[in-house]
Amino acid sequence: MKLKSKDMKLLLYLFLFGFVTLSCDNDEIDYENEEVQADYEEKYRPQIHFTAEKNWINDPNGMVYLDGEYHLFYQHNPLGTNWGNMSWGHAVSEDLFHWEHLPVAIFPDDLGAIFSGSAVIDKNNTAGFGENAMIAIYTSAGDKQAQSLAYSTDKGRSFKKYAENPVIPNPGINDFRDPKVFWHEESEKWVMSLATYNSITFYGSANLLNWDRLSAFEYYEGLPYGVWECPDLISMDYNGEEKWVLIVSTNGAPNGGTGTQYFVGDFDGNEFIPDNAPYPLWLDYGKDNYAGVTWSNEPQGRSIFMGWMSNWEYAGQTPASVFRGAMTLPRELFLDTYPDGHLIVGSKIVEEINVISENETGLFDGQVTNNVNLDIDAPDAYELSVSISGFSNSGNILKLQNSNGELVTIGYDIERRMLTFDRTESGTSNFSGAFRKSIESPVDFREEMLNLQIIVDQSSVEIFVNGGLSSQTNLVFPEEIYNELVLTGENNSFYADVKFKSLKSVWK
Q: Of 92, 120, 290, 488, which is most buried with the most CB atoms under 10 A?
């Protein structure tokens, strides 16, 4: 969860606490009589990204795999398109793209609203709720934030709250939330990463019910100040060596507002020690990737990440009618080495995107010395693979535009080794002065070639640079999807190879 100051946050929590205790009856909110109905044809509605059927969403929560299903819970207001009445929405998927909406899973109660958290599969019945019980660990956000449990023995279709909640009471701080839990095999205990203002505190437990504080991680050198949120500590393999990555969401992102940074290091079951690196390192340099975490119990052992596709600078102001908010596409995280020697986390779209991909076709292959206009026939969404080499100088590389004159521009700065994304003329943007911006991300060259994977939906553009060594996720709000590609060689000669795939709607 994210608001602008601790004082405002506390006042809103108090207000929300009072509201939900009046609104709840047996832990349920009555919203079935709403007249507003889901509309997957509405303007700006993503066709390949996850959205709720209607109303507000933000942080992904409780992402866990069980018996052939990826579960996605998420921060959700069942009553409207603005933040409030925080509950856990719920959907399941067999392929990470086609989602089945399920009823709201966890409602507010007398401990407060249901803020962000995680879910695990208790394979060995450590908590006593049953073998393979799905256990949700979340923040109860009443007058003070605390950590609570709910459990399901029917594969997430219904949850019962633990009678002795909270399992970790508030120790006397305002920002105490977003528990992410995993089983640490070496020390044979559950480990919780918890956001505690501008630190991450680790807790350990044998049974998910009784928790002991293990340690706290803080890092101030050169980092933007702000409340840390939505931590995730994950084990990853790099050339046969186990490394640990600590993901943290915060203010102070490189292009303004909120973003997701990470640390690479080691974890011994009690304490996280970061490697030396030029922190802050960012998982995504765009404006619109926040509060993301990874799936628990992923069957192939992949670190699959999904974030909330927005920015707290304007999340409550983006155009909305039936719905407001979407998730990024699911991404597999990987480790690589930056040229100066430190490890970085890259990301690539999961291979399951092939289930919605048409056959790849070539759009262009040759030298670009003047503008080259190419039509794009993909009414739902599409993917472009663009390889650029032989730059003569810095400048624009391509534009994506539509017949209304709405466009985004992608360019490259050779000396600064930066990819630029300009959405100043992208479509509707007058809802917030923080939205209209030229956005930059660093480029790590392995060869003297720039490879871009660009995925375009109705209201977003995601760019993966050189195999995902850096990325940008940016919202756009055009009247219609960009259906023309312009290679801008007028002032910048280069060689280009462009391939195209149409992506089918996952909702129609």
A: 290
Lowest-pLDDT choice from 8-12, 173-177, 233-237, 278-282? 8-12
Q: Which of 89, 135, 136, 87 lies closest to 113, judged by CA?
A: 87
Residue 54 DSSP symbol: S
Is 268 labeled as catalytic in the residue annotation? no
Residue 24 DSSP class: -
Strands 281-282, 470-475: pairing kind: unpaired
Q: CB of 202 within 8 A of CB of 217? A: yes
Q: Which residue is it, tokens 């398109």? A: 81
* 8 A C-beta contact, residue 332 and residue 478: no
CA distance 96 to 101: 13
Distance CA 110, CA 432 (A): 36
392 contacts 367 by C-beta, under 8 angstroms: no
Longest distance between any two alpha carbons in the chain, whole Å: 70
- Asked if 60 contacts 109 with a C-beta cutoff of 8 angstroms, the reply is no
Q: Is-above-0.70 flag for pTM?
A: yes
How many other CB atoms sit within 10 Å of the CB of residue 270? Answer: 14
Element of type H or E holding 208: none
Token pair 């280069």 is found at 494
Which 8-state DSSP code applies to residue 223?
Answer: P
Q: What is the dihedral of CA 78, 81, 87, 93, to 10 degrees?
A: 80
d(CA 117, CA 132): 19
Give the C-alpha separation, 263 to 245, whole Å: 6
Q: H or E segment at 38?
A: none
Q: How far, in Å, CA of 4 to CA of 111, rounded?
A: 23
Torsion angle, CA of 372/373/375/376, rounded to 10 degrees?
70
Residue 241, SS3? strand
pLDDT digits (tens, 9 = 90+) for 200-224: 999 999 999 999 999 999 987 766 5
